[in-house]
Amino acid sequence: MKNNREKVLYVAKSDGKGVENKIQGFCNAVARAGYHVELDIEQSAGFAAINRQIRKMISSDAKYIVMRSPTRNSIFFVLCFIWLRLQGKTLIIDQPSPASTYIKEVNYQDRSFINKTAKKLLTYIGCPFTFMLAHRVVEYGIESSYFRFFSGNRELVIGNGIDTARISLRKNDYPDGTELLSMIGVGARIESWHGFDRVVRAMGEWKKQGRKPRVVFDLVGDPRTLHVNEIKELIKIYGLEDDVRFLGSQPADALTALYDKESLAISSLANFRRGLYNASVLKSREYCLAGIPFVSADEDPDFPTQIPFRFAIPNDNSIDAIINIFESFAERRKQFTDEDIRQYAIDHLSFDVKFREIMKGL
Question: Sign of the C-alpha dihedral, residues 277, 278, 283, 287?
Fold first, then answer.
């Protein structure tokens, strides 16, 4: 079969609407770069789904095949990858989070010990083979030395990209932080590594001292997690029932309306809980594109620490830096506009920029 050097096939398993939006945004950038793009997102799971993905890749005439890493299922794609290499395909693994981080995330899953152990073993065994067979392994965080050994000089660590057409600049309907500081934290599910509990503890101490401005916090995402129970206990302890709201999952239009009303956004503040200190958090990029200043705790390749609209805090359990933000926000907010924040996203975070980085030298 003759390989079509102008064609890219992207293969992935569905992992929610947010992930599908990201993949579609990436493919849109590939098309703008002049390639013919074919996207195959598998909606089901199990061996039948794996078999369909394998058949799709083997039968494709695309020169470039990008696969969103199957992580624990990597072992089942090894023979397929060998065959694709023999066909002269260029293989790119899109690793959404380091494999070593995924292993730590498994510990938080509500599964049996046997199930979690099996997932970890499959990841330890399978990922190295696909990493070695790929021409490029695109990472959005620093891998452990074990997995990095197998990816070698094929590893490319970059920041997450974003589709700049997907989110518009928000309206200016939010408080300036002088009398009221309104915050929002968004996730598909409210998990421990989001670190929203750090914010609630800081709010509790702030309120206990009777300080101004008043601080309120809206949490968006599926609340059916163990971490939400911990947050609710903190709310009771500090008497924050009127200051913290659980809004559940929200559609895109409702989320946009919420962004219009919020002074400040909260990105992931506790990735250290899953052993991650260098990360490229997608939510930070979405906030940036919408023109919202945000709080972040990770070393991020796309955000130097001196950027005024990114409020950097330590990646640990401390809350002092968060309290300092409550105190200084109104004054610091004068240093930038919503338009400044969005322009930074367009110039540095777009999928068009990221795709050029990925394809360089292939």
Answer: positive
pLDDT along the chain (362 residues), means of 10: 88 83 90 94 90 96 94 94 96 91 83 90 93 94 89 90 90 94 94 95 96 97 90 97 95 92 96 85 93 94 89 96 97 96 94 92 87
Spell out the alpha helix ranges (H) of the chain. 17-32, 47-59, 78-86, 99-106, 113-133, 145-151, 196-208, 226-238, 252-261, 282-290, 320-332, 338-348, 351-359
SS3 percent helix, strand, coil of the chain, rounded to 5, is: 50, 20, 30
Q: Measure the CA–CA gap between 253 and 276, rounded to whole angstroms.
A: 31
Residue 266, classed as helix, strand or coil, is: strand
- CA-angle at 263, arms to 257 and 266, nearest 5°: 90
